[in-house]
């Protein structure tokens, strides 16, 4: 009787312990955890495994790009002007260091002549277009030429050019004329001196009007 009671108490104690302390399972090994994604996503896992990592021999060599070769821009050409005979005007000289091509009938600007495929200074009337003449290395319309050399000017004046025009050829308004260095115009210095020396004419007397008489009367003193 007493032994049966003790056995029953022992079984009850064991059941109490199992109910109050649930069974703890042992942790899964790391290999099992890492293998789960591979079983669920085999294609993704295979792609990850095939990707080259670190120093793997499958890593492609980086593309060797050439080093950029930087070169400074070339310096501008040094101006080289066509000389003129001594005593001629030294303005609007033609820069021979810059001679644009004039192939295939291209028009030369700055009143230049097309000689041997480049736009350059003219040397004679034959170098210019029809209706043009060569004056001071430029091609001018023949009807706008007043002088072709300083030898044609007098009283120390020089044969000069007026300047390029805005048209494509650059000579529509370009003209030549004798200019005195003292007057700064096309009128010779002797003519200017004659105009300055000439006496100025006296102004003609002005007719007396009624307003003039009234103004003179107001200016008179009043009688005391």
Report on this model:
This protein is α+β, with helices and mostly antiparallel strands and 224 residues long. It is 26% helix and 10% strand. The protein is built from five helices and six strands; from the N terminus they run H-H-H-E-E-E-E-E-E-H-H. The strands form three sheets. A two-stranded antiparallel sheet has the order 1-2. About 10% of the residues have low confidence.
Can you tag this structure with a few keywords?
two-stranded antiparallel ribbon, 224 residues, alpha+beta, 26% helix, 5 helices, two-stranded antiparallel sheet
Total DSSP E strands? 6
Summarize the amount of helix as a percent range. Answer: 25-40%
For the residues shown, what is the average pLDDT?
75
The computed structural class is: alpha+beta
Task: Please state roughly what percent of the residues sit in beta strands, choosing from under 5%, 5-15%, 15-25%, 25-35%, 35-45% or over 45%.
Answer: 5-15%
- What is the 3D shape? elongated
Low-confidence stretches: 25-34, 185-197
- Major sheet attributes: 2 strands, antiparallel
Layout of helices and strands, plus pairs?
Layout: H1 2-20, H2 30-40, H3 42-50, E1 113-115, E2 118-120, E3 132-135, E4 138-141, E5 158-161, E6 176-179, H4 189-197, H5 210-219
